[in-house]
Amino acid sequence: MQFDKEKLQLRLYQQTILNTAAKSNTLVVLPTGLGKTHIAIALSGLYFERGKVLMMAPTVPLVNQHYEVYKQFFSPQDGIVMLNGKIPAEERIRLWKSARIVLATPQTIRFDVIAGRIKLDDVSLVIFDEAHRAVGDYAYVFIGKVCGRMEKPARTLALTASPGTQDVANEICENLRIEKVEARDRDHEEVVQYVQPIHTNYVLLDLPQNILEIKKRLDEAIAVRLRQLQRLGIPLPPKVSRKTLITLNYNLRKRFLKDKRYGLGLSVCTALIKLQHAHALLTTESLNAVQRYFSQVWESAKTNKAKSIRDIINDMHVKLAYSATTIALETGSEHPKLGAAKDAVEKLLRENPYAKILLFTEFRDNVPVIINTLSKIREASISKFIGQASRAEKGMSQKSQAEVLEQFRRGELNVLVCTSVGEEGIDIPDVDLVIFYSPLPSIIRTVQRRGRTGRTSLGKVLMLITKGTRDEAYYWAARKSEEALNLAIKDMQNNVKQLTLENYPSRTMDEVTLFVDSRESELAELLHSKGANAHLGALKVGDFVLAEDIGCERKTVEDFVNSLVDGRLFDQAKRMREAFAKPFMIVEGDISLLPSIRNVAPAALMGALSSLVLDWNIPILITKDKEETADMLMIIARREQNGKKRSLPTRPEQKPQTLTEAQQFFVEGLPQIGPELARNLLKHFGSPKKLVNAPVDELQKVGGIGDKKAEIIRKLLDTEFKD
After folding, report:
1. Cα separation of 187 and 615, whole Å?
2. Intrachain domains 2-194 and 198-204+338-466 with the same fold
3. In CATH, what class is 209-330?
4. Please, are residues 292 and 365 in contact by the beta-carbon 8 Å criterion?
5. Which end of the chain is more exposed for a tag (fewer CB within 10 A), N or C?
6. Other C-beta atoms within 10 Å of 200: how many?
7. What is the mean pLDDT of residues 215-219?
8. pLDDT value for 506
9. What does the pLDDT average to over 571-583?
10. What is the pLDDT of residue 508?
11. Using CA atoms, how far apart are residues 435 and 281, in angstroms rounded to an integer?
């Protein structure tokens, strides 16, 4: 493979950053549109001959975008491959082996590493695009840890327009083994000549009287429930917001499992969250959005008997608010933001018919009403730009998203109404105006949206703010966060914590292997992080296979009770007993909660536990959480596989009970042969012996067996075994 470095014209700041990244694991913080990808390509050109280059991005469209850019600089292009979950696993294995440069989603890489399909040992450079995601349990964190445990860790390059808060930035650096931070804002002396100023205009809007009347009704409905929680002795957070209410709701749910007296408080808190959402839609979004939400609540009440839903639809204040919203819409009223957005778009397009505009809204329910409002502008050619998933309406496929962006580039469209899908990474052309329909508290998202303008010409940002609402709070929160972050990044450039291999313990020499059911992917990741080879797949019996005759069924305390009530428990016990000589069960969680779940009598629970141990001879182990479950599985697997030198079965499945089942089981062991094909082959040939002796052309006569499958089967049967 050749790298055409002459085609890559790096600016001075890009060269400076590249020099740092070539020597140290580096976090690059650059505004959108200033060439982070070209720095990644230049570094790839330095490393691709030392081993594979792996560049990851959060979404398939963004991976596709990087793939097209990489192809411009490297040849032959068959050494560059894309990997995502839509590509069959066997094909991903083949592509990985043949590639020099891999562009992939991190979810795919994590899954294939855990499943044992690929190893990162031969990767020389790993690039994390949109690196602000490398926190919590996102796939980047897992991959960063795997890279850190390698005998020769890969060079790391992390790219982002903004890491968010200082705490998040520190977490990113720790998770990705960052040694240096290279940050440039738009005012940096090396960058300023390549960007244009961005003028931000803040439009403060008053709510009209009819919306204030609706707001008053919802304020009273919310106040009633806050007082109700206080009477119940439930302490309210100092600041009542959606986030704090969700936390309170979670804590009440946990208490409810132990004490049913918390049921009323939980119901009131759930209703409060729904009412606050309606309040936010009313005050900061549109009347159409709040009416649609009310309609959904009333519709769900027909089938959903939850107390919180009944509480809302029976509340006179809410009924009056719903009625007043409908009347306001019928008389032509709407939120003043719609008029302000229309005025701004119309003014710019009349001044400059070639202008391009992005309008961002937080709620997809708002998209149709915004488009309907802006479509009244004669000069406007408008389209939505939204994601794929949607409960209320069909979203946009990746193909339709690409078509809309191409029309926008060509000038066939001049206004895009976007949800958050337009923020991150996607190559949207430079625009003349970005409209924030609502301010955001997230500095990351604010920077990404704002960065869509001011690249090649004077940029304009319009921020629509409704007075006296959360809009104002969000605006000030983002502004303070950005100021604090800029100071923190400057400090981090000189004071990044130096990480060594000691921060990332290597795998133990006595590695163990486990088969893990695909539904237990979170446990598989935990096991892998502890040094196990955890192979994900569909197990017919149990959740884990630890040795040839040892299988485990894992249940949370809640699932244990539910499986007892619905009759699954003893059926699973029977199948575990038949499949494994030494089955066992893990019950995970606080076992003191068992009697409170679904009000099952303690005697019934004790009877079920004793029956599993005494009648079915299935030991029960208790763990407090997933972490302890993973530790327990590792200890048992290491004891059995290394201590006793026992191996895993190659096919961790329930063993056949009859001769017919045994014949089908035998044929299913052939590559790419499932139950249906196995039966077809046996019906065609009559016996396994005739099948084994059949030539390729005879195998091809069976439905579902093509040229490739027939050749693979024949090769497997004819090739000499090597231990």
Report:
1. 74
2. yes
3. mainly alpha
4. yes
5. C
6. 12
7. 95
8. 45
9. 88
10. 45
11. 18
Domain 659-718: CATH superfamily is 5' to 3' exonuclease, C-terminal subdomain (1.10.150.20)
Residue 184 pLDDT > 90: no
pLDDT at residue 509, rounded to an integer? 41
Asked if residue 336 has a cis previous peptide bond (ω within 30° of 0), the answer is no
- What DSSP state is assigned to residue 543? S
Q: Which two tokens stand for residue 64?
A: 């596709």
Please give the structure tokens belonging to residue 647. 């191996």
**Token pair of 618 as six digits:** 């299935």
What's the pLDDT at 200?
Answer: 84
- DSSP symbols for 304-325: ---HHHHHHHT-HHHHHHHHHH
CATH topology of domain 198-204+338-466: Rossmann fold (3.40.50)
* Lookup: tokens for 446: 């604010």
Enumerate residues 6+ apart whose C-beta is below 8 A from 7: 72, 73
Select the highest-mean-pLDDT range: 91-105, 388-402, 656-670.
Answer: 91-105
* Nearest Cα to Cα of residue 158 among 174, 143, 138, 178: 178
Alpha carbon distance 692, 685 (integer Å): 9
Distance, CA of 223 to CA of 435 (rounded, Å):
33
pLDDT > 80? residue 195: no
**Beta strands at 433-436 and 357-360: parallel, antiparallel or unpaired:** parallel
Checking DSSP bridges between strand 513-517 and strand 101-104, what pairing results, if any?
unpaired
- The residue ranking higher by pLDDT, 53 or 578, is 53
Query: How far, CA to CA in Å, does 321 sit from each of 272, 279, 299, 328, 333?
Result: 15, 10, 16, 10, 14
- What confidence score (pLDDT) does residue 393 get? 56
- CA–CA gap between residue 246 and residue 399 (Å, rounded): 36
Distance of CA 169 to the CA centre of its chain: 19
Tell me the CATH number of domain 2-194, given options 3.40.50.300, 3.30.2350.10, 3.40.50.720, 3.40.50.970: 3.40.50.300
Q: Is the pLDDT of residue 198 over 90?
A: no
pTM: 0.70
CB atoms within 10 A of CB 586: 22
CATH 3.40.50.10130 corresponds to the domain 513-643? yes
Rounded CA-CA distance 511/256 in Å is 42
Which pLDDT does position 499 carry in this prediction? Answer: 44
Q: Which of 144, 169, 179, 158 lies closest to 529 in space, CA to CA? A: 144
Ranges of each domain in the chain: 2-194, 198-204+338-466, 209-330, 513-643, 659-718
